[in-house]
Design a protein that fits this description.
- There is one protein chain.
- The chain is of the alpha+beta class.
- It has helices spanning 4-31, 52-64, 71-78, 82-88, 91-98, 167-175, and strands at 111-114, 117-120, 123-131, 137-146, 156-164, 186-188.
- It folds into two domains: 1-29; 52-188, Nuclear Transport Factor 2, Chain: A (Roll).
- Strands 1, 2, 3, 4, 5 and 6 form a six-stranded antiparallel β-sheet that branches.
- Helix 2 packs antiparallel against helix 3 (71-78).
- It is globular.
């Protein structure tokens, strides 16, 4: 026969243990996993300090580590230019677009090969070849602009991402030599 007092203590101990586990889980989630340096960084937002190469890398890192609640896609949307957001937003529409071909290959991808970044005045072009989670490769061209005014003045933001399912076409752009001189595009990277 079980003791009624033992049941009360057991239930109280179980409740205390569960509340400790919940509190520890919440504290761990708030602090983040110190070993996980590649996950989406929700605090990131467009800033003049980020150059076009960093903007591309922030977005691709976010998409590589996208979660079931679309944190990576939300971070990527944060770096979309206001003009881009007018076409692709609001966020639920942007999520649907990124979960559909050809952009779905960016989600949780294995690897990225960055081509030479080209900057012409306030416009930047970053070719990349992405190896998707299934091993297939797709080429993308990030098109960014430095915002001239408003909330994002002097921030580099993404205007468009163009895709090609024939990365060999983009591989040529990745290996093409850059020409410097008067009238030639500037480049970073």
């Amino acid at each position: 026969m079980r003791c009624r007092h033992c049941d009360i203590y057991l239930n109280a101990a179980t409740a205390l243990l569960l509340s400790c586990l919940v509190a520890a889980g919440a504290a761990y989630a708030a602090a983040g996993d110190p070993a996980d340096t590649g996950g989406p960084r929700p605090a990131l937002a467009p800033a003049p300090a980020f150059d076009p190469a960093e903007v591309t890398q922030i977005q691709l890192d976010a998409l590589r580590t996208n979660t079931l609640i679309n944190e990576g896609i939300a971070l990527t949307f944060r770096f979309a230019s206001p003009a881009n957001r007018q076409v692709t937003g609001p966020l639920p529409r942007f999520v649907k677009m990124l979960r559909s071909p050809p952009y779905d290959r960016l989600l949780n991808h294995q690897e990225v090969e960055y081509g030479p970044l080209r900057v012409e005045d306030d416009t930047a072009y970053q070719p990349v070849i992405v190896t998707a989670s299934d091993g297939q490769q797709t080429g993308y061209l990030w098109v960014m602009s430095r915002q001239r005014d408003g909330e994002y003045k002097d921030c580099w933001m993404t205007d468009a991402v163009l895709s090609t399912e024939q990365p060999a076409q983009l591989r040529f752009a990745l290996s093409a030599p850059l020409v410097n001189g008067p009238g030639a595009p500037n480049h970073l990277g």
